[in-house]
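In response to reviewer comment 3 from the previous cycle, which asked for concrete evidence that the modeling workflow produces usable outputs, we include below a single protein chain processed end to end. The sequence was submitted unchanged, and the resulting structure tokens are shown without manual editing.
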Amino acid sequence: MTKSLLAVTQEGPRLAHEALPADSSKFSRKDYTRHQLFAVLAVKTFLETDYRGGVAFLGDFASYEPTWG
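The workflow returned the following structure tokens.
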């Protein structure tokens, strides 16, 4: 278990790429890939907040986007 948010944002997408396909269906809207959604879920869980809180946090640090998915 890590205490570093940066480590979470780097490890989350790596795990998602190993375990999940990018899209659930060829008919999916493709707004976000499963990898990106998993990265938000990892941050949400780490920060113990809701999805909107996780998205808001990541939005505040948009310069880190290449790191988290």
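The radius of gyration is 12 Å. We consider this sufficient to address the reviewer's concern, and the full set will be provided in the supplementary archive.
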